[in-house]
Design goal:
By secondary structure, the chain is of the alpha/beta class. The chain is built from 15 helices and 19 strands. Helix 1 packs across helix 7, helix 2 packs antiparallel against helix 4 and helix 9 packs across helix 10. The N terminus is likely disordered.
């Protein structure tokens, strides 16, 4: 007997594709019921998910719900209410030359979808792509992050048994498992993570002509206008930056501040940190932890050489890295080149808008850009001068909570978007359908062609 391929990467891809090709996922009722079943697992096991996220990230229970379980449930509700409408496709006109025939564009599922998930939001950034895949009629194989093991175990034990057999499978493992899965011939790959790893995923997928969606983060800028509401800006920036201890791909990476108002913003952010987390954030139930020691050490290295304005307290044994605000990075400093991805917020002063835009344009296109201003003309100038996956005015991070908005990057922050209908479109392809009638078969298209040229020219004009 040959080797058992059931639990090989090729086997996972083949079984997922076979389920779709069987037609089992084709009906809207199948997709609606599958989404409802996934939602039920999240609701009924809410406490278990929250405990797992707290174990992996020290996630406060409120944040676990608001940024992970609750967001996925919102995606599910949004898709269930609209999937029949999305599946209708389009009915383009049919040229008279093809009479009698009817044309339609069908959004057809791609087949087997691979989701390679990150550790920072191990539930949301795993299941939100899966929701899009299910709504689009695909089967899904998930490779959860090995750095969020408690959440990964729950995904493996709770999700597949709750859904139709083979619709969602979870394959645990590390980087080698991910590499093998990427090479296994899936029909689409979702990857969320570092740019360097995303580049390798795209290269490997390209050899198999597999389309990919890459969400790679980046240095998301926040620009504050001199006439902005600094009270509101400081509060919203402090929340958005220190959510999940800064381990958020759309978190403000740095803030461009008018040079005469840097001290004011520093004081306001300091006040909000104290109100949010108390005098010692390490003792706050509302402040998360750094995921593992390697990441903690990387953040400590980034802090070296930055002028600390607020915070900087660290307890390595507890993976606690307190909310930290710094001055600008010195020229050539790694914090000016790397995505910080932690609770370190540099304040970068500027004198003129052109100077602020120059700082932004020195970085790869970000996943999100934030502008705090009351002046429409200034907002238009900033929006038109830069590229970003999202552009948010007078807030930060909250764009991710709207399932009607696309979530994705551009340029160096990735490509491809999902959430809502955008994920449905990403994971289907427009298949051309033409159904010709047999009750009338005009002879004009058949040889001999003598004497028919004028009529053909008239029909296809």
């Amino acid at each position: 007997m040959g080797p058992d391929r059931k639990h090989t990467p090729d086997g996972w891809a083949a079984r997922a594709r076979a389920l779709v090709q069987s037609g089992a996922t084709a009906s809207p009722s199948f997709r609606e019921k599958a989404l409802a079943a996934l939602g039920a697992v999240l609701r009924k096991q809410r406490s278990a998910w929250e405990r797992a996220l707290h174990e992996d990230l020290g996630a406060p229970f409120f944040e676990a719900w608001a940024t992970q379980t609750g967001l996925v449930l919102a995606e599910i509700r949004h898709a269930r209410r609209r999937v029949r409408r999305w599946m209708r496709g389009e009915r383009p006109a049919t040229p008279l030359a093809l009479f009698p025939a009817r044309s339609r564009i069908e959004p057809a599922p791609l087949g087997a979808v691979l989701v390679i998930a990150p550790w920072n939001y191990p539930l949301q950034l795993t299941l939100a792509p899966a929701v899009a895949a299910i709504a689009a009629g695909n089967a899904v194989v998930i490779k959860p992050s090995e750095h969020a093991p408690a959440t990964g175990r729950l995904l493996e034990t709770l999700v597949p048994p709750a859904l139709p057999p083979g619709l969602v499978e979870v394959v645990p493992g590390g980087p080698e498992t991910a590499r093998d899965l990427v090479a296994a011939g899936f029909d689409h790959i979702f990857f969320t993570g570092r740019r360097s790893v995303g580049r390798k995923v795209a290269e490997a997928a390209g050899r198999a002509l597999t389309p990919v969606t890459l969400e790679l983060g980046g240095k998301c800028p926040a620009w504050i206008d001199r006439r902005a509401n600094f009270r509101v800006a400081a509060r919203r920036l402090a929340w958005a930056k220190f959510l999940n201890a800064g381990q958020t791909c759309v978190a403000p990476d740095y803030v461009l501040v008018p040079d005469q108002r840097v001290e004011e913003l520093t004081e306001r952010i300091a006040g909000h940190i104290h109100r949010f987390y108390g005098a010692d954030p390490d003792g706050s139930p509302d402040y998360a932890r750094i995921v593992h020691r390697d990441h903690f050490d990387r953040l400590e290295g980034l802090l070296d050489g930055l002028p600390v304005r607020i915070g900087g307290e660290r307890r390595p044994e507890r993976l606690h890295f307190g909310p930290t605000v710094t001055g600008p990075w010195p020229e050539g400093h790694p914090a000016g080149k790397q995505e910080i991805f932690g609770p370190i917020l540099p304040l970068v002063p500027y004198r003129r808008l052109a100077g602020a835009l120059d700082v932004i344009r020195q970085q790869p296109d970000p996943l999100a850009a934030y502008a705090f201003s009351k002046r429409p003309e200034a907002i238009r100038a900033v929006r038109g001068a830069i590229r970003s996956g999202a552009f948010v005015v007078n807030d930060a991070v909250t764009q991710c909570a709207n399932p009607g908005l696309p979530f994705g990057g551009v340029g160096g922050s990735g490509h491809g978007a999902y959430h809502g209908v955008h994920g449905f479109r990403r994971l289907t392809y427009p298949r051309a359908l033409l159904a010709a009638g047999t009750w009338f078969d005009p002879p004009v298209r058949y040889p001999p062609y003598a004497g028919k040229a004028g009529l053909i020219r008239w029909l296809i004009r």
